[in-house]
Amino acid sequence: MLKQGMKPVHPGQVLKNLYMEPLGLSQADAAENLGIARKTLSMLLNEHQGISAEMALRLAKAFDTTPELWMNMQRNYDLQNAKDKVKLGRIKIFRRPKKLPAETVVLKGKTITPAANHVH
């Protein structure tokens, strides 16, 4: 968990500094084991590409972690970057009319509880 005020780092930096370097892994060896092109790994390590779900699965297997670890790192990094860029001050909150039912509805085969915005 990040301490308040700390910005998340790119997952590629974490991969390089905390996983590959301590093991003495070259990009070529890591890429071969992951079943990806060396250029793809280089793009990730140099922060020009993010972690996809498929890459998270590969990294989790190779480094005995979880895909959620990698996806959460990417999500946190992306959200922080968005917060730094997006101006939210002029956006007004849409309030749900009180007359709308709060019960669960089904839209396109997904169960949605409007009041809580949960999809099941």
From TrEMBL:
SUPFAM superfamilies (alphabetical): lambda repressor-like DNA-binding domains
Keyword flag DNA-binding: yes
Entry keyword set: DNA-binding
Pfam families documented for this protein: HTH_3
SMART domains found in the cross-reference section: HTH_XRE
The keyword Cell wall biogenesis/degradation belongs to this UniProt entry's keyword annotation: no
Molecular function terms, GO-annotated: DNA binding
HTH cro/C1-type domain boundaries: 15-70
Protein name (database record): HTH cro/C1-type domain-containing protein
Organism: Niastella vici
Lineage: Bacteria, Pseudomonadati, Bacteroidota, Chitinophagia, Chitinophagales
